[in-house]
Amino acid sequence: MTPIMIAALGLLMVATAFLSGLFGMAGGLILIGVLLALMPLPTAMVLHAITQMASNGWRAVLWRAHIRWRPVFVYLIGCALALALWSITRYVPDKPVALLLLGVTPFMARMMPAGIKPNPDSIWQGTFYGSICMGLMLMTGVSGPLMDTFFLGGKFGRREIVATKATCQVASHFTKLLYFGGIIDQAATLDPVLAGVAIAASMLGTSLARRLLEAMTDQQYRVWATRLITTIACYYIAYGSWLLLRTPVLAAFDKGGLQ
């Protein structure tokens, strides 16, 4: 990449880390969409993993007093189960499929019957959502909308949601890094300069968001977080659908032109 492109990506990473630092969500969703547009999927996944590990790791450090450890451990059991399965299949989806999965999952979580609504304090739900979210992570690069919906379903305060989710995400993105950096057949490599910029930008954006999160109320946090999830999910459904429909349309046009 050119220095200008690296600088532009660095600014984007500061902005998305700020958004994630404020809401504990959404920034990674925006970033992976841009990276998928610029790079091959495995390379985008590796860079995104490094960025999100730095962002979530620093966020977990800043809010370490508010981490709820039991949901973290249960969630990680589900992640381990998913990694074992995906290491056997080594499936890497096309971009349209990845984007559609990103957009659909939060709406699926909201449509669950009242008796099994997301509850991060539940052991079986933590394992189940950990497995599904890790599967999404390995297919799409993020599990954001579904994981966000899961943690918003409990009675955690905004600081507990941000801190606990960040801790879970460090392990999830590390697993994704191992998967796309070494396990799959088309494992990716990454420019060390770009990786360094990603880490520094993520930590800066996360630090800048702390004071604003302190100023928000729990009610404001939940309202805006839900709006963010819905908006981004709808965008990915629309974008993924467009990519899915564009290929056959272009193929038909090219065929007609040749005739």
From TrEMBL:
Gene Ontology terms: cellular component: plasma membrane
Signal sequence segment: none
Topology in membrane: Multi-pass membrane protein
Record-linked InterPro entries: TM_pro_TauE-like
Residue intervals passing through the bilayer: 29-51, 72-92, 98-116, 128-147, 225-245
Pfam families according to UniProt: TauE
Main location: membrane
Compartments (UniProt record): Cell membrane; Membrane
Assigned keywords, A-Z: Cell membrane, Membrane, Transmembrane, Transmembrane helix
Highest taxon listed in the record's lineage: Bacteria
Keyword flag Transferase: no
Family note: Belongs to the 4-toluene sulfonate uptake permease (TSUP) (TC 2.A.102) family.
Protein name as annotated: Probable membrane transporter protein
